[in-house]
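FW: tagging you since you asked about this chain on Friday. Here's the raw sequence from the shared folder, copied in full. Didn't touch anything.
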Amino acid sequence: MSEQPYDEQPRSAKKKWLVALLLLIGLPVGGYYGFAAWKHAATHVSTDNAYVQADMAQITLRERGTAIDVLVHENWWVKPGQVLVRLDTRDYEVRLAEAQAALTRARESVDQLFAAVAVADERRRATH
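HL: got it, structure written out here
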């Protein structure tokens, strides 16, 4: 009779422990690297024949206008608050002059109304 030693386990039990150990270690490691790969793929653009990785920001104007001078070129580094484009000021000067003329007309009409109130007040006093 061949007897197996007490501390020796059958092969299938050893395989089960080995598979369980590999799964216990392999699943978290694979999940970590899988998540890292997914995160990288979601934020980086790749092509078959080139490497593309860039930080880009959209530039929007506060006011519409005609650009007379562009102070930066493509792929230049810029700082927050840096002037990128100079706009033609003639359109703004015309709008400013129109607004000042409207303000002057409004002040004149207010002055006329105050004068009319003063005349009406004098007429009221003269009749009483």
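FW: Helices lie at 11-43, 90-127.
HL: agreed, and The mean pLDDT is 85.
FW: great, closing this out.
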